[in-house]
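Task: encode each sequence below as structure tokens.

Item 1
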Amino acid sequence: MEAKHEKFQRLIEFCRTLEPVPTAVAHPCDRSSLEGAIEAAKLGLIAPILVGPRAKMEAVAAECGLDLSGCRVVDVPHSHAAAAAAVQLVREGQAEALMKGSLHTDELMAEVVRRDTGLRTSRRVSHCFVMDVPGHEQPLIISDAAVNIAPTLEEKADILQNAIDLAHALRAQEVRVAILSAMETVNPKVPSTVEAAALCKMVDRHQITGALVDGPLALDNAINLEAARIKKIDSPVAGRANVLLVPDLEAGNMLAKSLSFLAGADAAGIVVGARVPIILTSRADSVMTRLASCAVAALVAKARRDSAKAVE
């Protein structure tokens, strides 16, 4: 079995060869969020712009022995102002990524999705976990387990395209998406199986592009070749999926946490579909998870720059 964190280590080492991504860090006013930003800066993954009450951030830094001297600080009075100012830095082109500090996710995302001053695009915003599962050959992308609670078919199409684009940004040689349900046959009594079939037809019609997509598939025959063989599923995806599209937030959250707490996986979290990648971390996240989340954002930002240059 491979060493723990090996895939994330490779990801971080590659991103250290890139230019640091200017990143607006909203309200990093506790140890975990401030230390995560500073450690990512030390590795050259991001160039943090710390947005929050200066006195509070400096007090946390002093208490934890962190050096803020190389960081730009934007002084605002409270967390709501920090979220708004961080989003504004992105809108002004001063930041290419957004990072959550010690404020509630809802508070940050409310500013992101504002119609007049936010970071909306034509695409639905969605969340992806990039999972480093010990013993599994490559990272697994799971979406959506944190933002869209019970997505419609239309919203799932955007969630799927966002996840495919992320897999390409992470340099996957071939993107293979399994649309998960409790079974691998279409059953009108199980809506997720019908929506899976519709999504596959949308892929056939080039409404969703960039990947091999199959579904419905149960989890076992999505990621295990022997399970797919036993069930006689003839598919280029079955048993080999590297992206898992879940039916709803509850299923995705339980799947990701099962992998983390039962299989020892690490889960980097990122929101895609906005103008820039948004790094979502929790106070319980390890330093490795925080660094990997920054590395994922760095690759997404690079893919956006490369795409913009290609258009020019």
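Item 2
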Amino acid sequence: MRQGFEDSNTTCVFSSEWDKFAAKTYEANFNEKPFGDITQINEKDIPEHDVLLAGFPCQPFSHIGKREGFSHETQGTLFFDIIRILKEKQPKMFLLENVKGLLTNDKGRTYQVIMESLKELGYSVFSQVLDAQNFGLPQRRERVIIVGFHPDLKADAFTFPIGDPKTRVPINAILEQKDTGYSISKHLQDNYLFKKDDGKPQIVDFDSTIQVNTLVASYHKIQRLTGTFVRDGETGIRLFTELELKRLMGFPEDFIVPVSRTQMYRQFGNSVAVPMIEAVAKEMKNILQTC
């Protein structure tokens, strides 16, 4: 999210990441070691800031009575930590990102509690499902984006950028010839990947002009139902390469990946689509300048 939001007029003053491998990648690229587990950090110790950026697990909340306020229902979840930071620091804006399943999680109650908790703090809150393929990436990746503005800004409306289907990039535009290093064994292909003639998994080649399925954090497990693989390499089928992952998610090609292959796939699969965040950030900054 920092990659998409930061520019010459913005400076990151605080970051938190509990996973040591993700923290290693973050430090290698931003020359800052993020603080650890946000649940263990006192909100008063976080520097003052204008914008809060955050992602959090999509999980149902408890059914505590509304007499105590919506924020009480989120205790024990990472969203609760977002609420306590917003309440203490009162930033001008926030941007939250989550999977599309957030809308239907716990029969829609999770999303309801999230929106009401944010509004209870006085923020004007807006949400939209955006798809990365409409922002120049060769991947279908729908995500819920929630933005909010402090009441002092008097932001009564917000128009989300929805991207442009005409700018969609075909998967073959980002593929590279890779003979070694990422191949899937013939044994795994014959006994697992193609054990059924059901069109799974998704296979692309240098003639494919589609936008591929969503890259997931478990991609390294070579799952036939969720994975997309390339017709290339020593055995005829391989995984996406490091460079292809960067292109799939919209990262610069010189982005440093100092972790193992497993962690690399996990981190890119958990990441945001950078150009999509960049487009939302641009509209948010316009609000800040005009209000």
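Check on item 2: The chain has a mean pLDDT of 94. The first helix runs from residue 2 to 5.
End of task.
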